[in-house]
Structure formats: structure tokens, C-alpha cells
């Protein structure tokens, strides 16, 4: 069974939540997919000056963003993974998975990057995997990629595709994801944003280059560095189940946790 997976590369304007959601929806309307992956904090923008701002723009998992996107998932019978500032017992940098049935589940970013450490609490839900009609989906957010334990945790739980909402500012991730996909034999779908946010004396430029990588490390497509865009590819999820490398080596069964110092 072929599954159409899309990554949506947007250029959010800080604080313009409704416009940012509508811009993403406008791009999504141009391409039919079973699963759309949107960037980290795609609705609010990224460069919060202080915690007052992240608190003010945070939403509960079932909040306005979820409601607006759920109209699309119901109409199109599809799924969306998207990043947002989550208001719960405290404020998290989270991503939600929603579908035709509405809210499915949330992931809270475990490895916070740079000033996120003063804006958000670190994630406390581990790395959950969700069983969708076409396959098993895990989520991680942006900087989580640099910790191989994130993708490996999802692969060990059976994820076939890792949805990876991102707001990349360093140049290493797009090439690095080739290794994350290959060393776990999973598909990865990194949805980055473009543009620049200069706020409170801190200027951040986002690198775009959203991409989908296959379990053999092949980059199925990579978007440009500076323009909003959407990319879609047909994926055979069962390719992520082939963990046998040769008759002696199984990728996951060959692990030697007794020899690791983790
Ligand atoms: C990042 O984690 N947003 C770089």
C-alpha cells in the first residue's frame, strides 16, 4: 500500500496565529496526502522574547489550532502532525497528531534548544508511537535529531515513519537525517520553516530544506532554502520493517545494550 506523505514548509509571522494556520492550509490544499507534517511552532512563530510571550501564545492540545486543522483532516480524511506551544500543567514545545477522528496524541520536545530552555519545560512523555490505519508514526521535534536516542527510541517501539516538525537554524540536520533514517531503517519527514525572526535583539534565520528520507538513506526530495513550499512522495511503509541487513545481521536485534554505557 502506497501512502502519500507531504512536508509543508511555511514562513510563519510571529504572533499571527490565524494567518499562519491559513497559510499552511492554503499550501496543503494544493496537494492531496494521507499525512501532512508541519513545522515546529508553525502557528505562533519561534523567537519568543520571554516566557510571558510563550505563555500568552500557548494553546491546549485541543485548542483553536487543533480545531482549525481538524476541519481539514475531517474533510480530506487525512492526518496532520504539527508543532505548537502547548498549555498544560506548564508550557511545552509540543507536536500533535490529529486525524479524521480529531485529536490522537501529543509529543513534548525532550531536547530543548538554546533559549527554548527558558521558554518551555522539557518533555515528559517519552517518545510515543501511534498506530494509524496505514502505519506506525512517531514524532520528534527539531533539535531532538542530534540525539540519536530519540530516533532509536521510536524505531525500537516500531515506528515506520518519524514525523519531524522543525525550525532549523544550524546547517547540519538535513544531511544528518540521512544517518538517522539509515541507522534505524525508518522513513523520516522533516518539515522545516523558512524566513527570519529578529526579535528582542536576537536574529534567527531558518534554513528550509525540508525533506523526506527513506530507510536506505535516500533523500526522496528536499525543498529549497528560502521559499514556502510543499513536497509529497508515495511511501511503502513496509520498507521500514526490513531490519534484516544480511543473514547474520538484524539492525535492532544486533544491538548490544550490555556493552553500552548509556
Ligand atoms: C531547534 O530545535 N528549533 C533548532
What does this structure look like?
There is one protein chain. Helix content is 22%, strand content 30%. It has 262 residues and is an alpha/beta fold. The chain has a single domain (2-259), classed as 4-Layer Sandwich (Nitrilase/N-carbamoyl-D-aminoacid amidohydrolase), CATH 3.60.110.10. The strands form 3 sheets. A 6-stranded mixed β-sheet has the order 5-4-3-2-1-14. A 6-stranded mixed β-sheet has the order 6-7-8-9-12-13, covered by helices on one side. The longest helix is centred in the first third of the chain and has 13 residues, at 64-76. The chain starts with a strand and ends in a 26-residue tail after the last strand. The mean pLDDT is 98. Bound molecules: acetamide. Acetamide binds at residues 40, 113, 142-143, 167-169.
Distance between the termini: 38 Å
How many H/I helices? 6
Number of β-strand runs: 14
- Indicate the percent of residues in helices: 10-25%
Largest sheet entry: 6 strands, mixed
Question: Which percent band covers the strand fraction?
Answer: 25-35%
Indicate the radius of gyration in whole angstroms: 17 Å
Structural class: alpha/beta
Instruction: Specify the CATH class.
Output: Alpha Beta
Strand order of the largest sheet: 5-4-3-2-1-14
Task: Please tell me the total number of domains.
Answer: 1
